[in-house]
TrEMBL record:
<dbReference type="InterPro" id="IPR023198">
    <property type="entry name" value="PGP-like_dom2"/>
</dbReference>
<dbReference type="InterPro" id="IPR041492">
    <property type="entry name" value="HAD_2"/>
</dbReference>
<protein>
    <submittedName>
        <fullName>HAD family phosphatase</fullName>
    </submittedName>
</protein>
<keyword id="KW-0119">Carbohydrate metabolism</keyword>
<keyword id="KW-0460">Magnesium</keyword>
<dbReference type="InterPro" id="IPR006439">
    <property type="entry name" value="HAD-SF_hydro_IA"/>
</dbReference>
<comment type="similarity">
    <text>Belongs to the HAD-like hydrolase superfamily. CbbY/CbbZ/Gph/YieH family.</text>
</comment>
<dbReference type="InterPro" id="IPR023214">
    <property type="entry name" value="HAD_sf"/>
</dbReference>
<dbReference type="InterPro" id="IPR051600">
    <property type="entry name" value="Beta-PGM-like"/>
</dbReference>
<dbReference type="Pfam" id="PF13419">
    <property type="entry name" value="HAD_2"/>
</dbReference>
<dbReference type="InterPro" id="IPR036412">
    <property type="entry name" value="HAD-like_sf"/>
</dbReference>
<keyword id="KW-0479">Metal-binding</keyword>
Length: 212
């Protein structure tokens, strides 16, 4: 059930507000293939939204790949090329939705596993830094999603209780983190990489005309 008194909406970024996942997964596929891990589409999709240091080592071991997780992360560089160079745009209706929330006095936060260097580069290019009261990135917490730490940190910074907040996510990993933090989770199904949103409390496919 949605909060009876909505005080904050916390958004994921990749695949939720901006369709970066396809760019990121293509980059990751190339890196893994070069390391000797010809991952399947299903294996690649499972990496979306997760912590690479948890999800990638089993793949490297499964394929007997050359190199380590440190080698992989060095090549991936947080997928910085996506955030700095790809043709990015906010999802249709997203900017209007966030602006509408703030005009009603509802706080907004961006809560991402992506590191600050990448996320802030993208937000600057999108002219979207001023849309959020709080930004929490993957390098601001000890444990990333599916742990609740990123959302708990954002709620703490906003001074809002979990029962008064909504989370919008595009992945089962993010939804698990939202639920672990005690928040109602809305799954967003509008981006190009389709993920299992069955664990969400509700699912939306567009922000155009959406009211929260």
């Amino acid at each position: 059930m949605r909060p009876s008194s909505l005080k904050a909406v916390l958004f994921d970024f990749d695949g939720t507000l901006c369709d970066t996942e396809g760019h990121n997964l293509a980059l990751i596929r190339g890196i893994l293939h070069a390391m000797g891990a010809p991952v399947t589409d299903a294996e690649l999709a499972e990496l979306a939204g997760g912590d690479d240091r948890v999800t990638v080592p089993p793949l490297l071991a499964r394929y007997g790949a050359t190199g380590t997780i440190d080698d992989y992360e060095r090549e991936r560089d947080g997928c910085y090329r996506t955030y700095a160079e790809a043709d990015l745009a906010l999802e249709p209706g997203a900017r209007e939705l966030v602006a509408s929330l703030r005009s009603r006095g509802v706080a907004t936060a961006l809560v991402s596993t992506t590191v600050a260097r990448c996320l802030l580069t993208a937000l600057d290019r999108l002219r979207a830094l001023d849309l959020f009261d709080v930004v929490v990135t993957g390098d601001m917490v000890a444990r990333r999603k599916p742990h609740p730490d990123p959302y708990l940190r954002a709620l703490e910074l906003l001074g809002v209780d979990a029962v008064d907040a909504l989370v919008v996510e595009d992945s089962p990993t993010g939804i698990a983190a939202a639920h672990a933090a005690g928040c109602h989770a809305i799954g967003y199904a509008g981006c190009s990489v389709e993920q299992d949103l069955s664990s969400a409390d509700e699912v939306v496919s567009s922000y155009v005309g959406l009211e929260l």
